[in-house]
Each structure stands twice: as C-alpha cells, then as structure tokens.
Amino acid sequence: MTETTSTHLHWVEALREERSALWSLYCQIAEMKPFSDAGQVRPMLSQFSQLLIDYVSLGHFGIYEHVLSDAKGASELLSYAGKIYPVYSNTTESAVTFSERYDDGRRNFKTDNLASDLSELGEHLAERMELEDRLCSMLLH
User: Which of 6, 18, 49, 82 would be 99's cystine partner, CB 3.0–4.6 Å?
Assistant: First the structure.
C-alpha cells in the first residue's frame, strides 16, 4: 500500500465512522416523534448538532479539500469533484442551518418544525452520502 493510498484510506475511514455515528443519532431522534417534550429531545439535538458540524466539516474541509489538493493527474476525480461541488456545498449549508436552528444555546427552543426540518435534513444527508460514496470510491481506486 502506498503512502497516498494509506492517506486516502485514513480519510475515507474517518468519514465513514463520523457518518455512522451521525446517522445512528439521527435515527434515535427521529424515533422520538412526536416531539412534544422539548426537554427530552433538546440534549440529543445538541449532541446531534455538534456531530453534524463535525461530519460536514470532515467531508467538506477534509475529504473534499484533500481530493482537490492531492488528485495529481486524476482528471476524472477532479472533474467529478468539480461537478458535485454545488450540491455538496448546498448539503453543507443545510446542515449548518439545521444546527444553528436547534443548537442547545437557543433560549426559545421550539420543536414545532422539527419533524419537517429533520426530514429535509435527512434528504440532504442521503444525497451527500451518495456523493461522498462515489468520491471515496474514486479516491481509493
């Protein structure tokens, strides 16, 4: 295994671990519907929001930036990375917006729109994961 392949594998494994932890917590929160007890869901949302930001940061500033800086001569990989950037960036923005809305520090914490916001975020995360899977697959081959 070359040093470059080892580095790529490290990034991919780290991303997959973050993603697995995030998705597990997402499912736990989704199972709490209806979200009538803000006191019960709030700590989980705080933890989820922190993990969400860590995950999108690792993907956006870790994997994606790594691909752009280390894809020596891999024109197919660079082309794909450039093509998906607008969608990938949009999913990052969606995650940040969700995190800001449900951050534990908010005083007027309301769960009125949580179900629809969580559903919309889930769609964006699923889309992001598909893009990452393809990007990671190209990175490792």
Answer: 49
Count helices and strands in the chain by DSSP H and E runs: 5, 0
In the predicted structure, residue 1 carries a pLDDT above the cut 60:
no
- Euclidean distance between CA atoms 138 and 141, whole angstroms: 5
3-140 topology per CATH: Four Helix Bundle (Hemerythrin (Met), subunit A) (1.20.120)
Asked if pLDDT for residue 123 goes beyond 70, the answer is yes
pLDDT of 76-110, one tens digit each? 888 888 898 899 999 999 999 999 888 766 666 67
User: How much is the pLDDT for 97?
Assistant: 94
Q: In the chain, where are the structural domains located? A: 3-140
* Integer Cα distance of 12 and 90 in angstroms: 21
Tokens standing for residue 34: 């209806």
Q: Buried b vs exposed e over 19-51: b needs ≥16 C-beta within 10 Å?
A: beebbebbeebeebeebeeeeebbebbbebbeb
DSSP 107: S
